[in-house]
Amino acid sequence: MTEVIDGNAVASEIRESLSESIDALAEAGVTPGLATVLMSDDPASETYVSMKQRDCEEVGIDGIHVEIDSDAPAEELYDTIDELNADSSVHGILVQMPLPDHVDERRVLRSIDPVKDVDGFHPENVGRLVAGNDRYRPCTPHGVQKLFEAYDIETEGADAVIVGRSNIVGKPLANLLLQKAPDGNATVTVCHSRTEDLEAKTRNADIVVAAAGLPEFIDGEMISEGATVIDVGINRVDADTEKGYELVGDVDYESAKAKAGAITPVPGGVGPMTRAMLLYNTVKAAGLQEDLAVELP
Ligand code: GUN
Questions:
Q1: Distance between CA atoms of 258 and 263, rounded to whole angstroms?
Q2: Which of 64, 112, 156, 221 has the largest count of CB atoms under 10 Å?
């Protein structure tokens, strides 16, 4: 029987545990604060940011939301970040990606105070993660690790193939699974658009992580019997539905499920974990900035 990994359930447990940490912080007079910044007209980005704000409200994090016109001068975003860096009630800053072309994304990531960088995208935090001394693990890769932990999926000694080399998922996850640590110790292969004979790589894997942003790209033929399949993709594809689209992952779910030992669905797999780990990083950020010990799940 294939185990269907329930990201909603695991995320819910993490949120409950974080609520307790937030209560403990409140007793010390601290409310964690997360600022989300949206400079985009992309409906998916708008949805993601509003869900992140709703999550904050639910667990007792103060959410601040800043919207900037997508055609406003880039300086408006840079100034907003400076203001949020200086605001001591803001412990975490998340600038939703992607940004408009006229904005220098690297400058944005560099300009967020690294202690408030709850995405873990600042070069200092990327360097720390690669060196095995992480401060904030990027939310999606960390969420994937938490799913492995919750479902007793051993990474130690496993052959893990990650399909996709983004700075948000593929690269940080590869580094985390590579770390000499109980939730790492995997043999990691990172595949991408120029990989030759992708199937030969994925078929040899104990764990396949699909994070290429290509709808239903990985199918049952490409995985081995009993493999763990983690689908990070959320693709909107045209469909005859009320909204005119449906969400599909990077995995062809039915054929992959027939072969896999465990698989994440879309929605309800990795997505809720990404959101939960943002709350986790925000609580951690509040502890670090207020010099208070916090228990983290
Ligand atoms: N866009 C897609 N995923 C993410 C994420 O994890 N963080 C930010 N800031 N933007 C994103």
A1: 10
A2: 112
Q: For a ligand 1 pocket test, name from 34, 39, 116, 119 the mutation site with the most ligand atoms within 8 angstroms of its C-beta.
A: 119
Q: Where does residue 22 fall: left (phi above 0), alpha (psi -120 to 50 degrees), or beta otherwise?
A: alpha
Does the CB atom of residue 94 touch ligand 1 within 6 A?
A: yes
- Output the CA 252–ligand 1 centroid distance in Å: 23
The residue whose CA is least distant from atom 2 of ligand 1 is 97
Residue ID of nearest Cα to ligand 1 atom 4: 97
Residue 139 Cα: closest atom of ligand 1: 6
Catalytic residue numbers, as ranges: 52, 96, 119
C-alpha of residue 274 to centroid of ligand 1, in Å:
9
**pLDDT tens-digit map of 26-76:** 999 999 999 999 999 999 999 999 999 999 999 999 999 999 999 999 999
In the reported structure, the alpha carbon of residue 72 is separated from the centroid of ligand 1 by a whole-number distance in angstroms of 21
Does the C-beta of 112 come closer than 6 Å to ligand 1?
Answer: no
For the segment 96-120, what is each residue's pLDDT rounded down to a tens digit? 999 999 999 999 999 999 999 999 9
